[in-house]
Design brief:
There is one protein chain. By secondary structure, this protein is an alpha+beta fold. Helices cover about 20% and strands about 45% of the residues. It has two helices and ten strands, in the order βαββββββαβββ. The strands form three sheets. A four-stranded mixed β-sheet has the order 1-4-3-2, covered by helices on one side. The model has no long low-confidence stretch (mean pLDDT about 95).
Length: about 140
């Protein structure tokens, strides 16, 4: 059943967040007040509220890497992923926790991935698949 998820979390500065999510990532702004802003995060509702972000640590064992936990993620078609990776790399505004790369090459679940932090330190993973039917491949 198709659905849209909603996730709300804290950010320290709404204007910095608007720039990051809308200008850099290419998401659209929705409703907002002085204390929060809704972002159309690749078709899902992300609500960014002023406050202190949650604690994060690099404790997720994935392949040969430790990745930030917890983290928010989205899965894109590979060509969309590549366009975003190129845009973020060229911007000079994003420091990658895990630079754009291919993970599990030649195995079920082969994917492109990148990890980065928003201006408040919230970790985001963006994956890219040639075929979205392979997301749950074993």
């Amino acid at each position: 059943m198709p659905s849209i998820f909603h996730l709300a979390y804290h950010v320290r500065d709404l204007d910095q967040s608007r720039h990051f999510y809308c200008d850099l990532l290419g998401c659209a702004e929705g409703r907002s007040t002085e204390t929060w802003v809704d972002i159309d995060f690749f078709g899902h509702q992300l609500s960014l509220h002023l406050g202190e972000p949650f604690a994060v640590s690099n404790t997720g064992h994935v392949g040969h890497h430790l990745v930030p936990m917890p983290h928010l993620g989205v899965i894109l078609q590979l060509d969309q992923w590549q366009q975003l990776a190129d845009r973020l790399s060229a911007s000079g505004e994003v420091q990658f926790v895990l630079a754009p790369q291919i993970r599990f090459a030649g195995e079920p679940g082969e994917q492109a991935t990148m990890f980065f932090l928003d201006p408040s330190g919230n970790p985001i993973e963006v994956k890219g698949f040639r075929d979205l039917a392979a997301v749950y491949a074993k």
